[in-house]
Amino acid sequence: MQPSNGDPAPPERVAGGSAPGPTPPAGREPLRSEPADGAPTTPPLDATASAEPDGVRVLGDLTAESTGGAGLAALVADPLAGALGQVRPAARKRPKPGERRVQILQTLGSMLERPGAERITTAALAARLGVSEAALYRHFASKTQMFEALVEFIEQSVLAAIEPIARNEPDPARQVSGVVTALLEFAAANPGMARVMVGDALVLESERLVVRMSGFFDRIEAMLRTSLEAVPGDVATPSGADPAIRAAVLTAFAIGRLQRFARSGRAHSPTEHLETALRLFVA
């Protein structure tokens, strides 16, 4: 039907059947609820990056995932606020299952790293985490259980590093050096764990864990003894000494290095001049 003269023509319809909206006045941009293409973003921060030697496990590696960066990537655009050029902070995310437990252990480990640190209370630990003490006990039944988790981390990490050495290294003398080196490198990378290993952090917490840590070094000594029994008599130093005695001396040497490191405020690295020192035991 043709419009009569003087009547405005109906708007033309486009594909989809809907009529176009009103055209904004010249010189004025329409409001948009979505951000403009090419808006800058901030890459996530890697919370687990570490400069430690390859193969040395650190407590920070237990984190479930990186924390994510700040800036535009951590903000949520609001349709109205976006039109006004504003943004609002994203809602705080609840930790994933198991993530808070890891955070508790990492924070406890970092508190143990402080030189001259006294006995750590759950109140101080909760304050450092920014949570209540009750929140701690939702993940651990007691503080002793927290330290037990640290002991388990030490056992698993060190044994995972030294067992392949004892299994794959054909030279018994190199096995001995490798086991002691792996043990001391772990402590150097985890200063807080060194205090647990020598018992300083456990003596006021749990006698049972002190005994367990002592048993850990018994296992290290047994591995050293097995390797030393295969070392030819003309290679080991001193020649002809009983392998059990040499293993006990080497274990005491390693523990002494750990104690000096922990009690000197990390002034003396446990790996300092280690290669030269080990030649005194195994050439």
Keywords:
283 residues, mainly alpha, Tetracycline Repressor, domain 2, two-stranded antiparallel ribbon, DNA-binding, Homeodomain-like_sf, Tet_transcr_reg_TetR-rel_C_sf, coiled coil
Describe this structure in words.
Residues 1-53 are annotated as: Disordered. GO terms for molecular function: DNA-binding transcription factor activity; transcription cis-regulatory region binding. It comes from Piscinibacter koreensis. This is Nucleoid occlusion factor SlmA. InterPro entries: Homeodomain-like_sf (IPR009057), HTH-type_TetR-like_transc_reg (IPR050109), HTH_TetR (IPR001647), SlmA-like_C (IPR054580), Tet_transcr_reg_TetR-rel_C_sf (IPR036271). With 283 residues, the chain is an all-alpha fold. The protein has a domain at 143-278: Orthogonal Bundle (Tetracycline Repressor, domain 2). Helix content is 46%, strand content 1%. The chain has ten helices and two strands. It has a two-stranded antiparallel ribbon with strand order 1-2. α5 packs antiparallel against α6. The longest helix has 26 residues, at 143-168. The relative contact order is 0.09. Mean pLDDT is 76; it is low at 14-19, 27-51 and 64-89.
Helicity, in percent? Answer: 40-55%
CATH architecture classification of the domain at 143-278: Orthogonal Bundle
Shape: elongated
Order of SSEs, N→C?
EHEHHHHHHHHH
> pLDDT average, as an integer?
76
The CATH first-level class of the domain at 143-278 comes to: Mainly Alpha
| Radius of gyration from the alpha-carbon trace, in angstroms | 31 Å
Secondary-structure class? mainly alpha
Biggest β-sheet: count, sense, barrel?
2 strands, antiparallel
Tally of individual helices: 10
| CATH-level-4 superfamily name of the domain at 143-278 | Tetracycline Repressor, domain 2
